[in-house]
Amino acid sequence: MKNKENACREEDEKLKNKLKRKIVRVCRIMLKENLNINPFGNVSCRLGKRILITPSGMSYEKMRAKDVVEIDLEGKSYGGKPSSEYRMHIEIYKAREDVKAIIHAHPKYATAFAVSRVGIPVFLEEIAEVVGSSIEVSKYALPGSKELARIAAEALRNKNATLLANHGVVCVGDSLEEALDILRILERSAEIYILAKIIGNPYVLDDKNVKKLREMYLKYKSDVNENV
Ligand SMILES: [Zn+2]
Q1: Pairing of the two strands 42-47 and 161-164
Q2: Chain Cα centroid distance, residue 44
Q3: Which of 12, 26, 123, 186 is the most buried (most CB within 10 A)?
């Protein structure tokens, strides 16, 4: 019995360390791909009933897996100081059981929409497929505040990405990989939208096609997962 318990604990510890390493990797990718700037933004994922989240105010280059902080859904830390936006992550996880990972970032083009308080419609197939809907701007609240946590959770109740007014973006997914894909598509879409506006007027996809594209993508995703 004891051996079994020890084996389980070892497995849990292995998974925790793997996810911590993944969080650090996502942070580095965001810097490399110009999706974020140091030391802004934060990344988290679920670990059972707890959350693993980036530490407060640490540069992404310096960050190591051991620096990633474990907290519970009440905000209690099990070592280290979590990101100042930990409340926002907690409120989103509480509101969305299906969400397993969250990325908050300040990417250049998407943030241009956030400061203009203009949403991004579904004008590209990949927005329909990967994000699943238009990306709207949520109300302004100070960073790190309970109000911002409440507003972001509400905005993401039935969406996978939102623009935080005068601030940045939040993307959620069923894994860190999916949240990162959504962030990439959001930023690329924002850039393409600005270019398309210079050329003419971007056409928005109709709801029927958006729904169909999303269904096709979700089927493709589940087929890929089945074959892994
Ligand atoms: Zn921020």
Answers
A1: unpaired
A2: 8
A3: 186
Query: What pLDDT digit, counting tens, does each position of 157-192 carry?
Result: 999 999 999 999 999 999 999 999 999 999 999 999
Residues 154, 64: Cα–Cα separation, whole Å: 32
Catalytic one of 85, 126, 129, 178 = 85
Please give the backbone phi and psi of residue 138, each rounded to the nearest 5 degrees, phi first.
-90, 165
The CA 172 to ligand 1 mean position distance, Å, reads 15
The pTM (predicted TM-score) of the whole model is 0.94
User: Which structural domains are found in the chain, ordered by start?
Assistant: 2-226 (3.40.225.10)
> Does the annotation count 85 as an active-site position?
yes
| Cα 80 to averaged position of ligand 1 atoms, centre (Å) | 20
Cβ proximity of 166 and 140 under 8 Å: yes
